[in-house]
Amino acid sequence: MIPVKGYAAEAVKVPLAPFNFERREVGPHDVLIDIQFCGVCHSDLHQVRDEWGGSIFPMVPGHEIVGRISKVGDHVTKFKVGDLAGVGCMVDSCRTCPSCQEGLEQYCETTGMVGTYNSREIESGAPTYGGYSNQIVVDEKYTLKVSDTLDLARVAPLLCAGITTYSPLREWKVSPGHRVGVMGLGGLGHMAVKLAAAMGAEVTVLSTSPNKEADAKELGAHKFVVTKDEEQLKSVTNYFDFIINTVSAQLDLATYVNLLRRDGTMILLGVPTEAPHIHAFNLISNRRRIAGSLIGGIAETQEMLDFCAEHNIMSDIELINIADINDAYERMLKGDVKYRFVIDIATL
Q: 3.90.180.10, 1.10.10.10, 3.40.50.300, 3.20.70.20: which CATH number matches 2-158+316-347?
C-alpha cells in the first residue's frame, strides 16, 4: 500500500483536518499521480455536510485533480512517467453496459460510475478518496491528458466545472447563431460563458446581481440581464434557444422557462436541495423542454481539455493553502470567490 497525506472530514459537520491514509499499489493498468492542484467544487461541500445523503466518512473530497505522473503500471500505454495528467469526477465504471460502451461512463447502468471520492471501488468495496491529498492511483482509462501550454492551477476546475458545462453545449450542438442564456455566474456559470462564447453563440448572463455585469462581459458575455428588473426580463421573453441553469438554490423555474423560444431547452446543472416545480403549460405552450446533464464521459472530457487548450480557456481561480479549506467553504457559501478555489497541494 502507498502511504498518502490528505485532508478529510471525519464525520458530518466536522471541519476538515489532516488525515493520513493508504492508496492501493499501482496495478498493471494504473498510474500514480503526484497531485499539484485540486479544485474546490460546491459538491464537495454538499457531500461533506451529507446534504445529498449517503456520505461515507472519513471523506477526502476533491475531483478536480491535476498533477504529474510518477509511476506507471506494466501495461500502461497512454502515459509515461513525467506526463501531466488529470482526474475528474469518476475513476471507474462497469465498462460493459451500453452507456459505458458509448463513452458515457457517467451514466453507467450496471454499477453506476465510481466517484473519485465518496464512492466505493467495484472490486474491493473500499471507499474512494479524492484530491485533497498528495497522491492518487487511477486506472489509465479514467485518466486525462493535460496540456503543458496552460496554467496548471487554472486547468484543475476544468475537470468538473469545465466538463459539466461543455457536455450540454456539445450535446445540444450549440454553435454560431444560437442564443444562450447562462443562469448564475459562479464556478459553473463562468465556464459556461467562456465555452459558449468560444463556440460562437450569443451569450447572455441572467443574474440577480447588477454588480456582476462588468465581470460577465469580461468573461465573454455579449449581454447581461438583471432578473430582478421586470423590464430587462421582459426584453428577453421567448428569446433563448438554450438556457444553462447552474443555480443550486430554490427559484421559480417558470420565470426562466418563459425566456425560451419555441422548442427552446433549459439544461439543469445545479442541484437544489428541494425538487423544482413548474406548471405543464409553461412547457406545452411553446414546446419547450427541461433537460439535465451530468458531467461528461472520459472521451468527451479529453475533447473538452483539448478544446480549452486550443482556445486558451481556463478557469478564473483563487489559489489557497489547504489549511484554509474550511474558511474557503464558508466563503463559497457566501459566493465570495471568483470563481473557483483551487488548493495548492504543495501546502499540504
A: 3.90.180.10
The separation between CA 254 and the C-alpha centre of its own chain, rounded to angstroms, equals 26
Say what angle helices 187-198 and 161-171 make with each other, to 10 degrees: 40
Task: Report the alpha-carbon distance of residue 348 to residue 340 in Å, rounded.
Answer: 19
Res 315: pLDDT? 98
Per-residue pLDDT for 166 more than 80?
A: yes
Which of the following CATH numbers is that of domain 162-292: 3.30.70.1050, 3.40.50.2000, 3.40.50.720, 3.40.225.10?
Answer: 3.40.50.720
In this prediction, residue 117 carries a pLDDT of 98
184's grid cell: 448564475
Q: Give the three cell numbers for residue 185.
A: 455566474
Closest CA to 72 of 64, 61, 63, 81: 81
275: exposed, middle or buried (Cβ count in 10 Å: 0-12, 13-18, 19+): exposed
How far is residue 82's CA from residue 70's CA, in Å, rounded to a whole number? 6
* Alpha-carbon 33 to chain mean position: 20
Q: What phi and psi, each to the nearest 5 degrees, are found at residue 281? A: -60, -30
Q: What are phi and psi of 224, to 5 degrees?
A: -145, 130
